[in-house]
Design the sequence.
């Protein structure tokens, strides 16, 4: 994970859950439980295992387990191969579980990069960020 | 698609053009005259920007009598929206479902 920030875009979502790490770990690693909150899958908690996540929308993600540290860290690739560069995505998802007094803090970080985006954002000036922020608001209303 | 991407970025890279587009996004359909009144640039300049926006698929024009009304085409922006905001929304929803599941596992 030493890519520069210009090339990498990360999504981080964190949540405190009132459940012990062991229980959370089961939800993250048992296929029938993964299916209940994420997607249909043929996951197995073994480094190097290749699997698919199948979305309700028909899309299929190609994944490979990168790291398994029971009750602590789970990481896999999250790739969506698409001939249209706007949809093609190569990324890595890392789940980190940290015990807290009341349960577990779950952190999910997805970092990915798309060559076309790197190029398009390469010459970005400060104005772009504002523009996209406003755009998100507009589009949120459209939905 | 990568080419279309670049066209969109190039089109919106001009601050005046972006301002016109933002105005159409915010306030809905407008005539060249109405846009010129607030743009701080001449009507021919506004018309030229609208032409470029139209070529990129970002605006649509509609003729009514002598007037031409322009409206923003938000769909044209879809490929440009940062995937991070979409993915964040995705994971927040998945985490909601995970919380539900954990709760049910208690039963």
Sequence:
């Amino acid at each position: 994970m030493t890519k520069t920030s210009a090339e990498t875009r990360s999504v981080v979502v964190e949540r405190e859950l009132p459940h012990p790490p062991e229980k959370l770990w089961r939800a993250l690693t048992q296929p029938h439980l993964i299916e209940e909150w994420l997607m249909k899958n043929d996951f197995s908690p073994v480094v190097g295992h290749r699997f698919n996540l199948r979305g309700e929308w028909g899309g299929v993600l190609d994944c490979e387990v990168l790291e398994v540290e029971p009750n602590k860290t789970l990481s896999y690739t999250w790739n969506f191969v698409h001939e249209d560069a706007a949809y093609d995505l190569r990324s890595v998802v890392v789940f980190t579980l940290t015990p807290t007094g009341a349960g577990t803090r779950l952190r999910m970080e997805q970092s990915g990069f798309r060559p076309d985006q790197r190029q398009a954002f390469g010459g970005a000036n400060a104005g772009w960020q504002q523009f996209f922020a406003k755009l998100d608001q507009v589009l949120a209303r459209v939905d | 698609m990568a080419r279309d991407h670049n066209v969109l970025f190039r089109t919106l890279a001009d601050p005046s053009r972006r301002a016109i587009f933002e105005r159409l996004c915010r306030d809905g359909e407008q005539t060249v005259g109405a846009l010129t009144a607030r743009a701080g640039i001449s009507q021919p300049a506004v018309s030229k920007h609208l032409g470029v926006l139209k070529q990129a698929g970002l605006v649509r024009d509609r003729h009514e009598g002598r007037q031409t009304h322009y409206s923003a085409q938000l769909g044209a922006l879809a490929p440009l929206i940062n995937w991070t905001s979409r993915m964040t929304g995705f994971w927040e929803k998945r985490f909601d479902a995970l919380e539900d599941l954990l709760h049910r596992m208690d039963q």
Summary: Chain B touches chain A at residues 1-2, 5-6, 9, 12, 15, 18, 22, 25-26, 74, 77, 79-85, 87-88, 91-92, 94-95, 97-102, 105 (CB under 8 Å). Chain B is about 65% helix and 15% strand. The helical segments of chain B are 2-13, 15-27, 32-39, 43-55, 83-106. Chain B has a mean pLDDT of 84.
